[in-house]
Write a structure and sequence with these properties.
The protein is α/β, with parallel strands linked by helices and 290 residues long. It has nine helices and twelve strands. The termini are far apart.
């Protein structure tokens, strides 16, 4: 009999304010549903101690990542592009907690016009990311990467800087760009918003199974747009994965669904079932508590 599947949420924000009153219940619900770990990311220095405290409260289950996000929150109503000053404030804490970390994140680029409309702002983000790539390489830790509206620049910069251990979370770039990441050995984590995202549905069809990970990005990227606490028809992912294109011996993508390939069938259906089970518990354990 096959061993029970253990699941990992590769990117979530368990230190978010909406979890503060019942974080123990959130963790307990996830544990009871065969979730083996939550990789908890941070976005700015002010969150670092909370993330580390959660990892100490739930050792071996909450796995901490510290990093500086390309978009910094000034207030709940105001956000701005990151600067090197933000990284300067975070650096001492990352060094302090470096032995506790499983990764550096959430880091990356975000060229959404309302955050980075000028070349100066974009270059500032690049410099912050470069320094964090260097840090991750020095500490031999993977990078948990954000790339909204900047898929190609992000992957290009990661490759230029020699980053090899990379998880691209909720990637929204072109499929051809994603395949450049695959060639570099990068992983892609898929959030519940796949249910309402044609781009992510196409991405899952294209990516090799070996490069796909799971995430919630909770409390963001739920199944319903701008509704962080909703449920959705997660079974749609079964159909998406069952029509995943295959790669033939010549390395050319085939239009034949993997359901017609005996060697792949069990892997694909198994992954689809795990997605459904995983998101069912994570919706209730992580989203519905907000």
């Amino acid at each position: 009999m096959a061993a029970a599947v253990r699941l990992v949420d590769c990117h979530c924000h368990l230190a978010a304010p909406c979890f503060q009153t019942d974080v123990a219940a959130v963790v307990r619900a996830a544990q009871q549903a065969a979730v083996s770990a939550l990789v908890v990311v941070s976005e700015q220095a002010g969150e670092f101690q909370d993330v580390v405290a959660l990892s100490e409260r739930f050792p071996g289950f909450v796995l901490p990542c510290l990093g500086v996000h390309p978009v910094q929150e000034v207030s709940p109503e105001e956000q701005r592009s990151v600067t090197l000053k933000d990284l300067d404030a975070a650096w001492p804490l990352i060094e302090l907690y470096k032995d506790k970390l499983v990764g550096i994140g959430e880091v990356g680029l975000d060229f959404t016009p309302r955050f980075a409309s000028t070349d100066e702002q974009k270059e500032g983000q690049r410099q912050v990311l470069i320094k964090q790539i260097e840090l991750a390489r020095r500490l031999d830790l993977p990078l948990n990467v954000h790339s909204r509206s900047a898929g190609r620049p992000t992957i290009n910069l990661l490759k230029e800087q020699g980053a090899t251990k990379v998880l691209l979370h909720a990637f929204d770039g072109k499929l051809s760009v994603a395949m450049e990441g695959v060639k570099a050995g990068y992983f892609f984590s898929i959030p519940p918003s796949i249910i309402r995202s044609e781009q992510k549905q196409k991405l899952v069809k294209l990516l090799p199974l070996e490069n796909i990970c799971l995430e919630t990005d909770s409390p963001a990227l739920g199944p319903e747009k701008q509704h962080l606490c909703g449920r959705g028809p997660v079974e749609i992912l079964v159909k998406i994965l069952l029509t995943k294109p295959a790669m033939n011996e010549a390395g050319v993508r085939s239009s034949v669904p993997v359901t017609e390939q005996e060697n792949e069938f069990e892997r694909v259906t198994g992954l689809a079932e795990r997605y459904v089970a995983f998101w069912r518990v994570l919706f209730s354990a992580l989203f519905l508590h907000c």
